[in-house]
Amino acid sequence: MQDSKGSFLRRNRVVLAGGVLLLLAAHILSSGVRQGDFLARPQAVILQAMRPIADTFNRATWSARDLLDHYLWLTSVARDNERLRAALSSMPALQTQLAELQRQNQQLAQLLDLKDALQLATVGAAVIGSDATGLSRSVLINQGTQAGVRPGLGVISIAGAVGKVLISGNSVARVLLLSDHNCAIDVFDQRSRARGIVSGLVDDGVVMRYVERTEDIQLGDTLITSGLDGAFPRGVLVGYVRALTREGPGLFVNVSVRPAVDFRSLERVLVITQSPPRLEDSDQS
Asked: Do the beta carbons of residue 136 and residue 263 sit within 8 Å?
C-alpha cells in the first residue's frame, strides 16, 4: 500500500510541485505586505515572472477589440457605400426631372410674356392628345367651356399661330391645326402686305391661297395674321414662304408655306378668349 502511494507521488511530483507553487504564489499576491516585509521580495519576483503572461493576454485582448472595431467600421463603410451607390444610381433620373421642370418653367414664363404682350384675355392650356382617327389634323387641350373656351377661338403658342378651337366640352377642347384643310387663317406678307388665306392641304402641307399673280411675294417672306378674321389679333407669326409657282394659267400664284409652329412638339398653348380689337379701331388708336 505504501509502495503504491510512493509510486503515485513520484509519478506526479512535477504536477504536485507546480500546484503547490501556484497556490503559494496566489497566496503571496493576494496577501497584503508592508514595506520591508520578507514576503515583498518573492512577490516582486512572481510579479515580474507573470508580466509576459499579462502582456500577452493584454495584447490578445486589444487585438480582439481592434478586430471587432475594424469589423464594425467596415460594416458601417459598406452601408455608406451602398447608400452612395443608390444615390448615384438615381442621379440621372433626378437630373432628367430637374431639366424637365426647368424646361416647363421656361415655357410657362414665355407663355406669360406672350400673354402680357397680347393685352387680351387668354387661357393657358396643355396639349393632352392628338387625333387618333386620322380624320383631321387636330390636338386635344385640357381646357373647355368652364374656362371660356368655345369653338372659333384662335389658339397660339410661343412659336406662332396654332389653329382654331373646333369643339369644346366642359374641361376639354379639340383644336383644329392650321395644317388641316378645313382651317383658314387670314394673313398678309409682312414685307409687301400682300394678303391671302393660309390653310392646310388634304394630302399634306400648308399653302397661302388667293394671292394674285401680280402681288410682290418672295421666298422667305414672313406671314403674319391680318386681324381681319376675328380670331387672331394682327401680327401673330404664321409661317414663311417656302416655294412659289407662277406657271400655268390662273389668277393666283401657288404659295407653299412653312408653318412657324412644329405641331409634333406642341405642348402648351394660349386660347384667345377675348375678341381682338377691330382693325378700324386699331388704326384709329
From this structure: no
Contacts of 283 (CB under 8 A, 6+ apart): none
Characterise 172 by phi-psi region: left (phi > 0), alpha (psi -120 to 50), beta (else).
Answer: beta
Q: Secondary structure of 208-253 in the HEC alphabet?
A: EEEEECCCCCCCCCEEEECCCCCCCCCCCEEEEEEEEECCCCCCEE
pLDDT tens by residue, 94-135: 677 677 667 767 766 777 777 788 888 999 999 999 875 666
CA distance 206 to 240: 10
pTM value is 0.64
CA distances from 63 to 7, 53, 60, 72, 123 (A): 46, 15, 5, 14, 75
Helix (H, G, I), strand (E, B) or coil at 156: strand
Distance CA 111, CA 117 (A): 10
In this structure, how many other beta carbons lie within 10 angstroms of the beta carbon of residue 238?
A: 27
Q: Helix, strand, or coil here: 211? A: strand
Q: Does residue 220 carry a pLDDT above 70?
A: yes
User: Which residue type occupies 159?
Assistant: A
pLDDT tens per residue across span 226-264: 999 889 999 999 999 999 987 767 788 999 999 999 998
Are 20 and 12 in contact, with CB atoms under 8 Å apart?
no
List Cα–Cα distances, 185 to 25, 154, 164, 201, 226, in angstroms.
Answer: 115, 9, 9, 13, 9
Place of cell 377661338: 153
Question: Do residues 213 and 202 touch, judged by C-beta distance below 8 A?
Answer: no
Residue 5 main-chain phi, psi, to 5 deg: -70, -40
Q: Which domains does the chain have, with CATH numbers?
A: 122-284 (2.40.10.340)
